[in-house]
């Protein structure tokens, strides 16, 4: 039996982490823009978005079901969410490398790494978030 989770995205416990990732991407892009110029700024933002958009997809897929009776659906959702996240990340990198003419590759990977680092530190960040 699959019990569908009807909680909207902004009410999930992971939503503050997604907002933190967005803030890190925008802040890093602003710093890159001011420090190295506009190309570094939008390259950093693109790198942050390459990390954030697949995380949004994973969140959508992973939290579709809940409850002990839905364990098979939950495992399947996590699996498909992770596979989709990996494919989406590769596609976004390919799209950026093929489609963006002026690109600062180092800034792109800095933005990507900072947002991924935010994910890696999520246990430290989520500790202080309010419970729903």
UniProtKB/TrEMBL annotation:
> What is a single Pfam family found in this protein's UniProt entry?
ATP-synt_I
Q: Does the keyword Zinc apply?
A: no
Q: Report how it sits in the membrane.
A: Multi-pass membrane protein
Keyword list, A-Z = Cell membrane, Membrane, Transmembrane, Transmembrane helix
Origin, by domain of life?
Bacteria
Query: Which Gene Ontology CC terms are recorded?
Result: plasma membrane
Please list every transmembrane segment annotated in the UniProt record, as residue ranges: 44-63, 83-100, 106-126
Localization per record: Cell membrane
- Name of this protein: ATP synthase protein I
Q: Which organism is it from?
A: Geopseudomonas sagittaria
């Amino acid at each position: 039996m699959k019990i569908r989770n009807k909680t909207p995205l902004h009410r999930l416990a992971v939503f503050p982490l997604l907002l933190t990732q967005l803030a890190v991407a925008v802040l890093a892009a602003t710093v890159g823009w001011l420090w190295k110029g506009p190309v570094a700024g939008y390259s950093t933002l693109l790198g942050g978005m390459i990390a954030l958009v697949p995380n949004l997809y994973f969140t959508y897929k992973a939290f579709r079901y809940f409850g002990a009776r839905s364990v098979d659906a939950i495992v399947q959702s996590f699996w498909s969410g992770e596979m989709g996240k990996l494919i989406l990340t590769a596609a976004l990198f390919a799209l950026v490398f093929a489609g963006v003419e002026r690109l600062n590759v180092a800034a792109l990977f800095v933005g990507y790494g900072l947002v991924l680092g935010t994910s890696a530190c999520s246990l430290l960040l989520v500790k202080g978030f309010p419970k729903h």
